[in-house]
Structure formats: structure tokens, C-alpha cells
Write a structure and sequence with these properties.
alpha+beta, 4-stranded antiparallel sheet, elongated
């Protein structure tokens, strides 16, 4: 009964069914400007390849705090230094074949930006 409900397609208009994978590109950096430049490079490359894209999604910033004593010997007044490291993260999801990812990941991204690519079946 399921075959009767399906509409036959016209010859020559069959969709090219290629194995689509969900590809997640994770960019992380301490410098926001370099991170945004990397996201922009990927974002401008995507329309040329005609992919379905979600992102860049801004993930919460991780703030790492370290508090230390200023005095090396421990004597004197109790003065403290507070250091902070902020790690910014962006996530871009692509739905495409793995060979297209090679084209996208072959671009050069600013120094200090870490790129992680994971491929999963969708």
C-alpha cells in the first residue's frame, strides 16, 4: 500500500542521493577577533559549495581564574594577584559529504584558533 501513495518522479529529475553526514566544526580561541575571522572565512566558503549550514553558534565562554600571592616568600602584607583566561567557542554544523569538508578545512585560519572537525551519520 505504501508504494501506491508515492508519486513517481519524471525521468531525468531524480535527486542525486549522496551519503550526507552531519559535520560539526568547533572553533575555540582566547582571542575573539581571530575566532570571528575564522568563522567568517568558513561562512563565506559555504554558499559556493551549496551546503545546508547551522551556525556559527556561540557557546558559553569558559573563564579560568587563578589567584596567587604577590609575595614570593609569604611574609609582608597579604596581597593577591588575580589572573583570568577566557576561552571562546563557536560551533558550525554542516550537512554534506566528507569530500566537501576537505575543501572547507583546507583554508588557512588565524593563529591561535583551534579547529576540531567531527563527522557523524545523520
Amino acid at each position: 500500500m505504501a508504494f501506491a501513495a508515492m508519486k513517481p518522479t519524471k525521468p531525468g529529475f531524480e535527486e542525486h542521493q549522496e551519503a550526507l553526514h552531519k559535520i560539526r566544526i568547533t572553533l575555540s580561541s582566547k582571542n575573539v577577533k581571530n575566532l570571528e575571522k575564522g568563522c567568517a572565512l568558513i561562512w563565506f566558503l559555504v554558499p559556493k559549495t551549496r551546503l545546508r549550514v547551522k551556525g556559527p553558534v556561540r557557546m558559553p565562554t569558559k573563564v579560568l581564574n587563578i589567584t596567587t600571592r604577590k609575595s614570593p616568600c609569604g611574609e609582608g602584607t597579604n596581597t593577591w594577584d588575580r589572573f583570568e583566561l577566557r576561552v571562546h567557542k563557536r560551533v558550525i554544523d554542516l550537512f554534506s559529504s566528507p569530500d566537501v569538508v576537505k575543501q572547507i578545512t583546507s583554508i588557512t585560519i588565524e593563529p591561535g584558533v583551534e579547529v576540531e572537525v567531527t563527522i557523524a551519520d545523520s
